[in-house]
């Protein structure tokens, strides 16, 4: 049976859009992307949530630990260990930093220990410049477990009230999360035991729930958009709506989002997902290099999340040479800001940000395969 790669393609498109936005593409394009690209990851994760985990919580949590917590800790610790070495190499420095002028400094021994504790206990403490996208691991980890917890609590409550329909639970969970986020942003509250205050995690839970709800109606949705190429005009309308939001009611999953930005986020985020899903379904129906490439990328987003910022440095060296810039600008986060809105280096940053991590993955897989083959051969000879 032919594999449906629509969600993999969705994730592939989303990770490419993330790399483009982090590469300081033209402002209008970045604003458009920010409206929906991170919610899209939470929605696609929620798409695969199964009610079987209501009675098998340990398996669900363990999968989250292996798929999110452990990669986060492993790579955060790796970048923590090499943090000061990056200053010695010049990859990081105290002269150039982010667009607002913030820079990093070498860690003292005490700071390294504290960051290690933050990494392990709070999924924080990661290198802000080399691991700038790592918040997503914590966001999805918390959001998915929170969704399971809320769903199970409501399921227990509904069991005690037979007149209540359990079909309402997914909608009720999403409504609860939206109301909590509204309260939180309106009053400027923080969840003190979550790094960055919990806004991203809570909104992530809402979008995770939206993904689960979408899965329940996906077959009906397919029948709807496949009528007379409805996916074309619906995608165009969706793109226009998202663009208008990006121009007049700009929002994203910034952890410091205002109440207005909170109100502006759900609509373009959900419409942007449907737009991406429509495009992905069309691509899935047409075999070829585009389908294979995007599905391949979508199934390996982890490596791009981890290494795309480091991969940018190769293009920064080229940009420094091209413009004759100070070599220390390689320390800019995430890319060199000078001329970023005037040239097309964001395209090269995108190619490197996606391509180099995938090349690293391919090399690792090749080496692992060769090692396994060598061990199997040695074991066979020994027998």
Describe the structure.
With 383 residues, the chain is mostly helical. The chain contains 15 helices and no strands. The chain has helices at 6-22, 27-34, 37-47, 57-89, 109-122, 135-159, 169-187, 199-216, 218-225, 230-248, 259-264, 266-284, 289-298, 301-323, 345-382.
Unreliable sequence segments: none
End-to-end distance: 39 Å
What sort of overall outline do the alpha carbons produce when their principal axes are compared? globular
- Count of β-strands: 0
In brief:
The protein is an all-alpha fold and 383 residues long. It has helices at residues 6-22, 27-34, 37-47, 57-89, 109-122, 135-159, 169-187, 199-216, 218-225, 230-248, 259-264, 266-284, 289-298, 301-323, 345-382.
Which helices and strands appear, and what pairs or packs with what?
Layout: H1 6-22, H2 27-34, H3 37-47, H4 57-89, H5 109-122, H6 135-159, H7 169-187, H8 199-216, H9 218-225, H10 230-248, H11 259-264, H12 266-284, H13 289-298, H14 301-323, H15 345-382
Any descriptors?
15 helices, 383 residues, mainly alpha
